[in-house]
Amino acid sequence: MIKSQKLSCFSKIKHGFFNKKGGVSSGIYKSLNCGIGSKDKKINVEKNLKIVRNKMGLKSKKIFLVKQFHSNKFIFLDKKSNIKTRSIAGDAIVSERKGIPIAILTADCVPILIYDKQKEMIAAIHAGWRGAYKGIVEKVIQFMFKKGCKPQNMIAAIGPSISKKSYEVKLRFKKKFIKKDKKNIKFFTTKKNKINFDLKAYIKNLINLNSINKIDLINIDTFDQKNNFFSARKSLELKDADYGRNISVIMIN
Predict the structure, then answer these.
(1) Sheet strands (E) in 119-207
(2) Could you give the CA distance from residue 53 to residue 70 in angstroms, rounded to a whole number?
(3) Domain total for the chain?
(4) Which of 44, 165, 184, 227 is geometrically suited to a Cys-Cys bond with 177, CB 3.0 to 4.6 A?
């Protein structure tokens, strides 16, 4: 379990970014696959989620998840919410519920955990390039502002995800981002006809543009096999039939 140094300063929350070590799954899902939507045996995924809860010292019997689909949709768990886990499609969760861990799943995309220390509100965001392009990050932050959160009280942790050196993209991909905003050219490099995109830096910039300056960027590349993370791109390269998912969790005590 990897922790954000900035989020670890607060005793009122628990959090963790997990790689693929320490679970019960086998084969291409070895071992801590938390992807309910994967083709792994459901019983193994449930056991893995229990392992995550135990490692974090969580008393809750469930980790709240959404059905992710690379969108800009999110859900809000207020103090009276009675929404069942994975009953709603979306790519982020905002919560003020104590004792209910919220989480998102990734396999190269960027996991973002946010905490407002005054309002005691948290968020977990799944931001691949599609979700980031569609505005999932800004939408969540702006919603938190509407609920009374203040940028000076907010801390954002950007978890392990694919790095720029591992993220080669097509020219049309680059043009799409530059068409949206010419300043986005700074997140691309071209060398020997290869174009690489810095998704982490792009997302960090989006958070900064929304006035949040306390950002912890955990610079671990999920594509690099030595880091032991599930990677959709690596699985595609290896021609695997599917891939496991890494989980990132946050909870208000």
Answers:
(1) 121-127, 154-158, 168-169, 188-191, 194-197
(2) 25
(3) 1
(4) 184
pLDDT of 15 reads 98
CATH number at residue 56: 3.60.140.10
Please name the residue that has the structure tokens 């919603």: 143
Supply the pTM of this predicted model.
0.98
| Each residue's pLDDT tens digit, 52-79 | 999 999 999 999 999 999 999 999 999 9
pLDDT of residue 194: 97
Residue 169 lies in a domain: no
Cα(2)–Cα(104) distance, integer angstroms: 15
Per DSSP (E only), the strands in the chain are: 13-17, 75-77, 92-95, 102-106, 110-116, 121-127, 154-158, 168-169, 188-191, 194-197, 214-217, 246-252
Q: Is residue 172 part of a domain?
A: no
Tokens of 70: 């690379």
Contacts of 25 (CB under 8 A, 6+ apart): 31, 32, 33, 40, 41, 44, 45, 48, 244
User: Which residue is listed with tokens 């009280």?
Assistant: 153
Question: What tokens appear for 182 in the block?
Answer: 């010419």
Per the domain annotation, does 180 fall within a domain? no
> Mean of the pLDDT values across residues 180-189?
98
Residue 104's domain comprises 7-160+216-252
Within-domain flag for 203: no
Q: Tens of pLDDT along 25-59?
A: 999 999 999 999 999 999 999 999 999 999 999 99
